[in-house]
Amino acid sequence: MVNQREVHPFPIEERYDLGRLVTFMPNKRVPIHNWFYFKEGFSRDFTLLMFDWLQVKSGDWVLDPFCGAGTSLLASKEVGVNVVGVDVSPLAVFVTQVKTEDYDLEEIRDSAKEIFSKKFKSYDIKGLSPLTRRAFSRYSLEDILFFKEEIRRIEDHKVRNFFTLALMNSANRVTYGYKDGGVIKIFKRPVPPLKKMFKRTVKRMISNLKRAHFKGSEIKVDLGDARRMDFLQDNYFDSVITSPPYLNKIEYTKVYSIEYELFFRDVKFDNLRSYIGLNPKNVKDLFPELNLPEIAKAYLQDMNDSLKEIYRVMKDCSKCAIVIAEGAFPDRIVPIDILMADLAERMGLKVERIVVVNNRVVTRDRTVKIGRARESIIVMRK
Ligand SMILES: C[S@@+](CC[C@H](N)C(=O)[O-])C[C@H]1O[C@@H](n2cnc3c(N)ncnc32)[C@H](O)[C@@H]1O
Description:
The protein is of the alpha/beta class. About 35% of the residues lie in helices and about 20% in strands.
């Protein structure tokens, strides 16, 4: 049992050269991966590196139970690995689906011609929230609503989703809002016309698809909760590669609220209650000796439930890589990587090593240094 930050039985390695790979940054230049900027994502190259570390072969089945914007699924599709992604966020599942779908390019081109030939009609923006109205110019918002309506008329759901993601991507390029930590801040700046941006984005996305090479594998995405994946069989997966939400960084519902309002109006926020760590009720303290903050206890319990499910669906001798970060509190840093490794071993996983890839200074009120928080990859075997 771990009872001190520095005393634990796990081999630790430092590989700060990998720090950037666990961020979304490298994806910004990679076709299809960059169809939606998902701040919390890791990179395609990280997935490929994990394929190497975990010895994933083409034809294997990989699971990502916190798949986010589908980085690991798209990378699997590129190299011919079968993959299942699960995420509790309808936005994440939608983005993953659109990025990993097979398309008929002729159909997409025809729809593009149709959409861009329509005469502009103005829609009332008054019904939108004050935040959304502040986050765009009136012209951009009216264009978004107009194209949204045109897209809604497309019959084929795959094509409709393709254009919805293109419009979301374009909206993100003309917004005054930017995601700063857990909040959206407004910064007025000159922006290009939405229609021009949308046209350019659709053209780029079509060209990305034209050049893409996929090796043929099965890709499945499920809207679900990693703590209860009853829809997955026991002992099924050859590898698990994933990155759960980080403690204290659970702001997905807030920072994507504009996307939800404009493109997923029917999704109620109640559906998102199952977000890890958001509902700290009846919490079991898995580390009573550490006297952890309530939110950290709840988070670790959620992680424990997810790890149990991950363990259940892994084949014997299969491997797992989890990217996770320590949690910062005003008075301390909670060593989540080590505590999760400890929980994993309690249920029968063997921790092979913890690879520290980032070690960031954490401050309170932006000035007082609390300490340093690690971001690590836990590599385990069943
Ligand atoms: C760090 S992000 C994963 C990013 C992903 N690796 C990528 O590259 O896009 C964590 C994800 O976990 C999801 N999540 C939160 N609670 C969950 C739960 N209970 N079950 C499944 N997914 C959950 C969030 O919606 C978010 O997309």
